[in-house]
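ARCHIVE CARD
Drawer: 12
Card no.: 0347
Subject: one protein chain, sequence and derived structure
Cross-reference: see card 0346
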Amino acid sequence: MSLKNVNTVLATAGALFVLYLGLSFILTPETSTPGVGLPHWPTGDGDGFLIMKGIREFAMGLVIGILLVTGHRRALGWVLLMEAVAPFGDMINVLAHHGSLAAAFGIHGLTSALIAITGLLILRETSKAHKAPAPAPAPAAQPA
């Protein structure tokens, strides 16, 4: 299996997973919360913040999917690197709020690392095409 195929599978799986997470936070925020690793349910009407998180996740999945479908692979690599910041931030948030270490590192940290690695692999895949010199134009025909 070529690097391009492996990268496509990884990016597709990532996009589908992020879309699923987004939808679960939008549709059922109360059942999605225990899995993020924070120790307490927000007081008051906290589900609004969780729905915002879901919308963010869903939008990130759409961006990955659109770049995959349109074939903009170099941009996809850069976007994946950028999107790895979100689960890294989630990991820091869980740690800062004395949440589950297993969730912080095992869910958010691992997710961030996998997204970043996929982005780097796609950038590696596309670096050859990006650095390849353009073919020289054919010489013009000389008049006889």
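Annotation on reverse: Residues 127 and 133 are 12 Å apart (CA to CA). The helical segments are 3-27, 29-32, 47-70, 73-83, 85-96, 101-131.
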